[in-house]
Amino acid sequence: MKTVSAFRVSRRSLMKSGAALAGAAALGGTFPNIVRAQGSGTLRVLLAGDPFYYAIEGLKDQFQQETGITLEIEAISTEALQARLTSSFISNEPDADVISVDQMWLGQYLESKWILPLNEFIKADSDTAIDDFIPEVLYSMNTWRGQVGTLPVASYGQMVLYRKDFVDEAGIKIPEDGSWTWSDYLDTVKALHGKSFGGTTMSGTVLAGQQPAPVVHMFTQLAASMGTRWFKSFPTGSAWDFTPTVDSPENREALKLFLELYKLSPAESVGYNWFDAGMRFAKGDIGMFYWWTPYAYLCRKDGYMTGKDSVVADKLGIVRLPKAPDHHQVVSLGGHSLGIAGNTGKREAAWQFVKWATSAKTQKAMALYDKYGYQFSDFARPSLYADPDLLKIYPYLPGQIGDIRAGNGKIVRPPCPVYTTLEGIYGLNLNKVLTGAMTPEACLSETSTFFETILKGNFLIPYQQASYDDTLEATKALMASLA
Amino acid sequence: MTVALSLAASPRRRRLPAALPWLLIAPSVLLLLALILFPLVFALKNSFYFWNLQMSPVPMGYIGADNYRMAFSASFFLGALRTTVLMTLVGTAVEFLLGLGIALLLLRNLRGMRLTRVLLIMPTTIAPIVVGFLFRYMYDPNGGLIPWLLQSAGIPLPAAGLLGSSSTALWAVLFADVWQWTPFFAIVLYAALLAVPEDVLEAARLDGASAFKLLTHIKLPLIRKTALIVVMLRFMQLFNTFDLVVVLTKGGPGASTRTLGYSLYQAGLVDFNIGLASAMTWLIVIVVNAIIGLFVFFAFRDLD
Q1: Using CA atoms, how far apart are residues B274 and B50, in angstroms rounded to an integer?
Q2: Which Gene Ontology terms describe the biological processes this protein takes part in (chain B) (predicted)?
Q3: Cα A109–B271–B163 angle (5° rounding)?
């Protein structure tokens, strides 16, 4: 049905196309890329169904007007996306031209040639403004072995969200600049827990305890901030060594703290996924929690893209994450990126879309898109964090960029081969700790043993392929070379 | 007219080659065999290879029975097998007994039974994934219908909710399945009971047989074939439970609701370990066929 309707020629679309063609022809050499993309017909875009999708879907007419390329956008869950894309590439049945690629799949997709490296596209196209990306984001989400495989369309860090009126009434001061420790955070949560506020007994915090991904996403932030690393030497180092290091004193300490936090959360949060945890906070009976930055705007609403304000909409405090003393702060970076499918026949049109969706102009338009309330502030470009129009709507942006600049997605959740298998084991055991079926010590010991078995079984210990010293500096140098 | 036609047709029928019926059904048989056998043979071959899509898009080498060893050495497989067998046995038994009870009630011409028959079929027409979402809301500890009903009846609930506690999550998942599939048993058994000859029942009643005796000595033996087949079908369906688990618990808390179907999905479509998933597929095929084989052997041996 979609395909049929996409090809239906109305008078308006005919006029639009005519105007776009005439404009492009008149401007000629000024916009060579736009002209090249003309006539590419319909571009199929397959995205993960996160908030950025709604904004892109809402703005797709702009892209069509600018390029004459019709968009067919589809959004599905991340798990379904991975399954569908893998099936498409394995069977060599082309599916979409532009795809959402999770940072954990990047190496696999690039090495299997399922997506095209973008280095040459970027180099040939100064409109990309590659130097206006936050290097920590590109490093964490988009580069693999010296190649840019994708560009970020929605970049997330993690921050602390709290209910201002409740915290104020409790007489607690929360530092705006991140000058606090995880033990201060725990003390604050303890101080808030069980207090009555507006006739409700409040929980100190809320966790996302569901296995495997949500609990791993939440715990690893705390663990990395407290000094935990997954492997002996990855992704930096001249020789990669995947010997697991999760069974360490700092990780045991982090897990005990995480368990303490669970005891100060609603008990049912053992089964909460990302959104459940966020929406529980939005219901108003939670003091504070730390989570992915999109929840800074998602929690202002009472449901997903409902457009209706939540009870905490105008009572939301957002501050930077606590640190651990004696440890360099590391913030988890995640989000969504766009790549060009290796089996597409519309490479140039696909690149036009990737460039358009990740450009400062479109990202700003996405942030100002107001169909469901303002529901996008996940920028990867520093210029947008200083934009006065955006700061008016999203006043927490200075704190957000502070945390993102302290980000290192490759440390918090390293994108090693077989990551999802490791995450499955880790998530299961972390969840068992929350249910009381396992002690923190047993969890980390068993997880480490399983990691080792899996990594050996997949020929990653010892690592016999060529290593790549994957540092932030290397990404900065790559960006400079492509600019 | 009929006689004339059959007389005219009979010499022609005799002239048909004996192999023609075989030739006519051969395409269907071959297609069916290909559709059943190809995936199984493909999975069998892959189960002896190291093929993890996270590592390489093509198989990386022959590794003998290592995938089978890995499936057995990983505690989740045996744990999932235990959970699945428990869920399947209890689920099938409960659904059968409740379904039989409802079918017997339907036989009585009570008021509203027509409407009940129509309504009964509805849960089975809903996709399991939708049933999962429905029950997720109904199990919500903060205002869900089921916790509210249980608490109103004075039944204590776990603090983490019915889906959040290892001791109740499996039964909560099973309850959703029972809600959906008991009507299936009821409708099929009701249809079978309608076929029980009334004169046999009447004769038994005249001999003074009680309602219980009528059920155990006449009705159940007469609907036995139907009952066995419907039990067998549901057993196989329940053994592959996946949708409800994904929506309601994702196998948790811990591994308390991790079924074989969910473990297979995790290995194949999340971890993309095609070799391991193929080995697990074959282990499941063997287990299910062994159980069904035993069931058929014992249940059908004295039936013609």
Answers
A1: 8
A2: transmembrane transport
A3: 130
Q: pLDDT tens digit string along B198-249? A: 999 999 999 999 999 999 999 999 999 999 999 999 999 999 999 999 999 9
A·B CB contacts under 8 A: 94
From chain A, the residues in CB contact with B254 under 8 A are 428, 431-432, 435, 437-438
A223 inside 8 A of chain B by CB: no
CB within 8 Å: B141 and A114: no
* Largest separation between any pair of C-alpha atoms in chain B: 81
Q: How far apart are CA B165 and CA B178, in angstroms?
A: 20
Answer whether 0.90 is exceeded by the pTM: no
Return d(Cα A280, Cα A208) in angstroms, integer.
10
> What sign has the CA pseudo-torsion B284, B288, B290, B291?
positive
Identify the three-state secondary structure at position A267.
helix
A32 preceded by a cis bond (ω within 30 of 0): no
**Token pair listed for A275:** 């959104």
Contact A418 B55 (CB under 8 A): yes
B161 interaction partners in chain A (CB closer than 8 Å): 267-268, 271
Does the complex come out with an ipTM higher than 0.85? no
The Cα B240–Cα A34 span in angstroms is 51
Contact A79 B269 (CB under 8 A): yes
A432 touches chain B (CB under 8 A): yes
Cα A160 to Cα A174: distance, rounded to the nearest angstrom: 10
- Domain locations along chain A: 2-156+334-401, 158-330+418-459
Query: Do B271 and A268 make contact, defined as CB atoms within 8 angstroms?
Result: no
How far is residue B107's CA from residue B142's CA, in Å, rounded to a whole number?
40
Question: Where does A158-330+418-459 sit in CATH, by number?
Answer: 3.40.190.10
Torsion angle (degrees, nearest 10) of CA A17, A23, A24, A30 = -160
Q: Quick one: DSSP state of residue A73?
A: E
Is the CB of B269 less than 8 angstroms away from the CB of A267? Answer: no
Q: Answer yes or no: do B254 and A431 touch at CB < 8 A.
A: yes
Query: Between the CA of residue A240 and those of A382, A408, B276, what are the distances in Å?
Result: 32, 18, 26
Question: Residue B20 and residue B26: Cα distance in Å, rounded?
Answer: 10
Better pLDDT: B110 or A407: A407
For A92, the closest chain B residue by CA position comes to B57
Q: How far is CA B99 from CA A107, A290, B63, B88, in A?
A: 52, 48, 48, 16
CATH architecture of A2-156+334-401: 3-Layer(aba) Sandwich (3.40)
A434 touches chain B (CB under 8 A): yes
For residue B163, the chain A residues in CB contact (below 8 A) are 268, 271
Q: What domains, with CATH codes, occur in chain B?
A: 71-131+169-300 (1.10.3720.10)
Q: What is the pLDDT of residues A423-467, one digit of tens each?
A: 999 999 999 999 999 999 999 999 999 999 999 988 999 999 999
Say if the Cβ atoms of A428 and B159 lie within 8 Å: no
Chain centroid to Cα B213, Å, comes to 30
